[in-house]
Structures are given as C-alpha cells and as structure tokens.
Amino acid sequence: MKIFYGVQGTGNGHITRARVMARELNAAGFDVTFQFSGRPADKYFDMEVFNGYQLKDGLTFNTHKGQVSYVKTALQAKPIRFVKDIGSLDLSGYDLIISDFEPVTAWAAKRQRKPVLGIGHQYAFGHDIPRAGGDPIAERVMKYFAPADIGIGLHWHHFGQPILPPIIETPAFPQSVQANKILVYLPFEDIGEVMTLLSPFENYQFHVYAPEPIASPYSHIQCKPLSRQGFQTDLYDSAGIISNAGFELASESLQLGKKILVKPLHAQMEQISNAAALKQLGYGHTMYNLDAAVIDEWLRHPHAVHVTYPNVAKVIVDWLKDGMPAMDADFTERVWEKVDVLQVSY
C-alpha cells in the first residue's frame, strides 16, 4: 500500500507523533511519502526517520508573547501560494491519504475526491471531550483547517468517546530522577522573560529549550537549542516539566511520570482545552500567565501521575493492515484496557 502522509510542522508535537508512526509503518512494509508544512525548511531537525520528505508552506498561526494573533495570522498567510500548493499536489498514485492536521494534504485530497484519514489530537474535538476557550473563529479553524473523512482522535482519557490514547514513544520508566531538575519548554514566550521568572528558584536546575537560545546569566539555568535527542535525555531524568499546553509533550511527560505545569497559549482553544483536561483528570497544574507564585507552589508539590499507554501507533498500523474496519466502542475499549494510571512522588 502506498500512503501519502501530511504532517503539520508548527510546533514539534505533530512531528514527534509522525516519527513514531513512521517507524511502525516502515516496519510493516508500507511505502510512505511524508509531507510537512507550517515552518521554514531550515527549522526542521532530526528528520532522518522519514527517509526523505517534501515541504510546503502551508498555513501556520502567528504568536506573540504567549498568545495567538488571528489578525497577524491572516496578514502573514500566503493564500495564493496555499491554493497553488493544493492544486499542484498529485495524489493519484496513492492508496491512502493521511493527514495529521496538515491542510495542504487534506484539501488537495478533498479537491481530488480522495478520502482522508485524519490522525491526531485535533480530531478528538469532533467528540464530547473537555473544551474551553472556544469562540466562533477557533471552532471554524478546528473544523475546516485540515478536514478528514475519518478521524482518529487521540487524548489522555477516553471521556466515554470512541477515541484512542496518545501516539508516543513507550520507553521504560526512569530508574533514577533528579528531584531538582526541571525541563522548561515555552517556545511561544519571551525567553529572557522566562529566565528572569525562574531566576529566584536557585535550589532547582532549569534546562530551558528554545528555538532561538540566548546566553543565560544564571548558573542554575541552562538555555539550549532544540534537539530531539538532547531534549529526550533531559526529560528522562527530570522531575517535572513547565511547558505550553501542547498535547504531545504532556503525553510523553505522563508516560514518564513527570510533574506537569502548563501555560496554555492565550486565544488558542486546543491548548486551553488541554489545560482544562489536565486539571479535570488530576494529571497536571495550570497557570494562565507567567506566574512566579504558581511556579513556587508547583515546585513544592511532590506528587506526579504516571500513565502507561500502549503502543497506539502499532494498533493503528495493524488496523490499516486489517483493512480499516469500523473503530467501534469494543475496539477502542480493548485499547484503553491496557492503560494504567499510578501516583508517584519525588
């Protein structure tokens, strides 16, 4: 089977999920062409698993100091380029089209009347799951940004809906953790402001990853460039993570039993909803602004949640091999039966 697989490149969560899917698809013998859009070509890193890939401009959201700006997003969009990319993408030679919220692929398939399988967290919003921060614009973006005929939604809990657990790496639980080591990933915030915010907490070691790292004036704060391997190494033995409320990183942190503090992007319904879900499930803490008092309280909190998720990428690949039968309640229930939730302390 030949598969065309489009991946939204804004942020790193979609790409992280695609890496896991790529390994399982390759192991199963599928012939896959990957396409990424949403960031400049020189900003992609650690892409070897995709065995060559193609890029499009696509669409992305403009952010400034932790908030999505729909006005700037519209002004910086390239609609003519977007329409041309859709028109020039030939999908006739492919047996299956998959979109991880990637709009060029989704709309090109729609134009060519080829059904699209959507895989990703955003497709869970087609079901009754925790939602917050919605408005008419956000609702329409979620619905029409990268439409799919069949959507496999992913979330940390099923909420009584036919959705699946996250697609993440499934490493062994860390045998040793540095109780004072905190990983920080707030790429949409001002990095200097973040380090100033963390500077009073001298009993902790902060490893801050940033798209454009700057020199840290503080001995207990390291600022590092984005690197999948370096990031995973620091995440593995840290006690907790401070991040925006993206889905994939929180999923990995739950799998590794890390304390979680999220600061959702303002005016971004998905992230605000993610923060609400983490709070509802008791899986993490939330701050809606960069708040030293909230960080102080969270750092003193010794408890975390360890959620063991199955290899959902393999579940989906096996489902593809079986001819994509209906994902009914019995199917999804069997997957969720393999999820285990434990409390841990540091």
Attribute tags:
346 residues, alpha/beta, Rossmann fold, six-stranded parallel sheet, 12 helices, globular, transferase
Give a brief outline of the structure:
The chain is an alpha/beta fold.
Through-space gap between termini:
47 Å
Number of domains: 2
Which geometry do the CA atoms define?
Answer: globular
Low-confidence stretches: none
Q: Which quaternary structure do these chains form?
A: single chain
Strand order of the largest sheet: 3-2-1-6-7-8
Pfam families: Glyco_trans_1_3
Keywords: Transferase
GO molecular function: transferase activity
InterPro entries: MJ1255-like
Outline the secondary-structure elements:
Elements: E1 2-8, H1 13-27, E2 31-37, E3 54-56, E4 62-64, E5 67-69, H2 70-76, H3 79-88, E6 96-100, H4 103-111, E7 116-120, H5 136-144, E8 150-153, E9 178-185, H6 191-198, E10 205-210, E11 221-225, H7 228-236, E12 238-243, H8 247-255, E13 259-262, H9 269-281, E14 285-286, H10 292-300, E15 303-308, H11 312-321, H12 329-336, E16 340-345
Parallel strand pairs: 1-2, 1-6, 2-3, 6-7, 7-8, 9-10, 9-12, 10-11, 12-13, 13-14
Antiparallel strand pairs: 4-5, 15-16
Molecular structure report:
Helix 3 crosses helix 4. It is built from 12 helices and 16 strands. The protein folds into 2 domains: 2-167 and 310-338, 3-Layer(aba) Sandwich (Rossmann fold), CATH 3.40.50; 178-308, Glycogen Phosphorylase B (Rossmann fold, 3-Layer(aba) Sandwich), CATH 3.40.50.2000. The protein is 34% helix and 23% strand. Strand 6, helix 4 and strand 7 form a beta-alpha-beta unit. The mean pLDDT is 91. The protein has 346 residues and is of the alpha/beta class. Strands 3-2-1-6-7-8 form a 6-stranded parallel β-sheet, sandwiched between helices. The chain has a 6-stranded parallel β-sheet with strand order 11-10-9-12-13-14, with helices on both faces. A two-stranded antiparallel sheet has the order 4-5. The chain is globular. It has helices at residues 13-27, 70-76, 79-88, 103-111, 136-144, 191-198, 228-236, 247-255, 269-281, 292-300, 312-321, 329-336; strands at 2-8, 31-37, 54-56, 62-64, 67-69, 96-100, 116-120, 150-153, 178-185, 205-210, 221-225, 238-243, 259-262, 285-286, 303-308, 340-345. GO terms for molecular function: transferase activity. It holds the Pfam family Glyco_trans_1_3. InterPro entries: MJ1255-like.
